[in-house]
Amino acid sequence: MKERSDRHEQWRVELRASMPAKRRTAIPRVKMPELDADYRITTNQEVNEGLSLNQAVLEATRCLDCPDPGCIKGCPVHNDIPGFIKNIERGDYPEAMKVLSRTTVLPAVCGRVCPQEHQCEASCIYNKMGKSPVSIGNLERFVADFEREIIGFIPSDRRKDKKDDESKDAPKPFFPIKVAVIGSGPSGLSFAGDMCRRGYRVTIFEALSQFGGVLKYGIPEFCLPNVIVDHEIERLRKMGVEFQKDVYVGKTMSYEELLAMGFKGLYVATGAGKPRFMDIPGENLPGVMTANEYLIRLNCLGPDIFGVNGVSLDGKRVAVIGGGNTAIDAVRYAVRQGAERAMIIYRRGLEEMPARQEEIRHAREEGVEFLTLCNPVEYLANERGYLRAIRLQKMKLGEPDDSGRRRPVPIEGCIEEIDVDLVVESVGYMPNPPLKLEGVVDMTKSGEIMVDNASMKSSLPAIYAGGDIVHGPATVILAMGDGRRAAAAMSAAFEKAMGDISL
Questions:
Q1: What is the pTM of this model?
Q2: What φ, ψ does residue 319 adopt, rounded to 5°?
Q3: What is the pLDDT of residues 279-303, one digit of tens each?
Q4: Which residues contact 6 (CB under 8 A, 6 or more apart)?
């Protein structure tokens, strides 16, 4: 399967020669338009508005089309980044989408939520020049949005490459082998897309009522609109992937039943939705909840559900514990739900915070307070038994720990009490292994499925696994990378077996 375009094609050679590298590098990075902070806190409308066509072409012009592109090496799914960007520069947006589609099934998602500053953009040659890297994520989003909003509405008989379009969107299975995927998050979707492209019959089983996993349940619409996720899933459906919801493998359907249904391979991508707790006094008080519970309620049920529990965010003081992207999403949601005071409480400093820099900037613009070098030690109740305050231990930074960040150390005697009405804990998650797999495949003590990292194969040959169920909580793109590796390894194993049989 060809995944890289040829930079020596005549049009690319001519495109590089059309402008000296010195002129390209003199172009400043294009800034994506955003909703004004005063307006956006009143709505769940997406904050980033996307690049215009002219902005995208200008930004694509900055790409030097390097002979040994570091950006591809920095991308967990190895997107052909110069290949799609140069197609933007020459104005062939359908071809740019085709290039992306060879390696990713979620370009509109990745363009919005991937931490490009730590991956592809971190490896861009511009960094060595002391300049801002090419805006790869914004360009990926542009291509995917252009495909959804423009190309998708052009009748197929008027498209330039009708035959290519149809073969790309609806490949016909040519292997009679059925493969099951447990979980419809980014890793499962990536695996399913690659296996379907290879000609296998793929069915995704989802325990919940909506497809998308963390993309639907864990990320607010002001960061990733549901319509985007639905469109990406619909593209997979058109390719031939089957989807079944409300199927809890291990409970409503067993592994043995999957085998009886004719599935020859199984990819487990159930994620890490089991929350960690801080184990401090008062953690069970009404008014303390996990980020998972909080975001699922708001993303899927809306703010009215809080009335059932007697918790209204209008005019309330909300504290979110943690410094990752989920914590920032939660606190920004609180602002939009009318919180009078919305705070991030994080035990390290701002520089050590793992959330994306763009998310942190957006939160600060929206009025979020950052109480860094603070760690909760107790939640306090009022006379009715509801949460009223939080006790914070002041911290200082010591020596680096295993993560490379400086370890937070308590400052003896420095305790502060602040009034709060709602606390949302976002301090990590543990894997969600399907029931009945314990004893079937090797697992760690914390529930992660142990796999061979090159193939993502578990201790049972027919079962592969990837994403957060293997590594613990990580990024969307890393989970997708696991899915791609697993698909390549599983299909290779099937094809070897079929070759052996034919001999």
A1: 0.90
A2: -120, 130
A3: 999 999 999 999 988 998 888 765 4
A4: 12
